[in-house]
Amino acid sequence: MKSTEILVSIIIPSYNHAAYIEQSIRSVIEQTYKNIQLIVIDDGSNDGSIELLSKLENELGFILILQENAGVCKTLNRGIRDFSKGELLCILASDDYYHPKKIEKQLKALMNSNSEFCYTQAIEFDSHTKKELRVFPKKDFTGKVLNKVLLRQPYAAGSIMFTRNLYNKVGGFDSNLKYEDWDFSIRCAANTDFSCVAEPLFYYRSHENNIMKTLSRREIFHGKAMILSKNYALTEPHIWISSILFHFTYDHGNKFLKYLSIRKLVN
């Protein structure tokens, strides 16, 4: 099959991002690779997004689905299982956007490897100033990366491309978890080698409503612990223990050290 014959389905779950969603959609429409199916699912927005999306649907011709709020996981799974037709799949948050050559370059990377999962580097930028904050990841996470991904997900979830076969094999996104993308990555890494386009082809918007900025460290660690517990059987016990200790230290390190200091003073 020629690369231009492969349909790529891209799912955008949209929720209260009226200020950003048009840029996300246009970044898909303006891809250099044109055999794309774009599915936008509004997940119960109440900020004017629906009116804007209806206008853009008429102008740009993508598939628009409106639903009551169901959450990111259920929305992604519904978009993929009920509406997408592509052999390859991508996801995109409604406040982020793509470089014009993202799909073209990732498709080539997958076709030139035995991998069913490909990510790219990303640029994190400040939503207010547009200033570039960092390019990540710096290190190479390709080949058999299960143990590395079990420790952390180094790439942006919106940068990934994966096959429908892989999605079906791992069972999609788990709606019982908060950080569904990390869990999905772990299960994917247990089933395929990872490939990478080492160029920043995805733009990650940093603002005060990013989920990791709205939760306490205790809530964040609890979410991570649930994912690690679920995937315990996929790796060796010492790798699992290292991961759980790493995240406990990362999320609670300052409070733990402060507690030890107080105990030392009291005793």
Task: Tell me about this structure.
Helix 1 links the parallel strand 1 and strand 2. By secondary structure, the protein is of the alpha/beta class. It is 43% helix and 21% strand. Helix 1 runs parallel beside helix 2. The C terminus is likely disordered. Strands 1, 2, 3, 4, 5, 6, 7, 8 and 9 form a nine-stranded mixed β-sheet that branches. The chain is built from ten helices and nine strands.
| SSE pattern, N- to C-terminal | EHEHEHEEHEEHEHHEHHH
- Rg over C-alpha atoms, rounded to the nearest angstrom: 19 Å
Shape: globular
Please work out how many helical segments DSSP would assign.
Answer: 10
Structural class label: alpha/beta
Could you list the spans in which at least 5 consecutive residues all have pLDDT below 50? 262-267
Strand content: 15-25%
What is the distance, rounded to the nearest whole angstrom, between the alpha carbons of the first and last residues?
Answer: 72 Å
User: What would the average pLDDT be, to the nearest integer?
Assistant: 91
> Main β-sheet: number of strands, strand sense, barrel status?
9 strands, mixed
Helix proportion range:
40-55%
Number of strands: 9
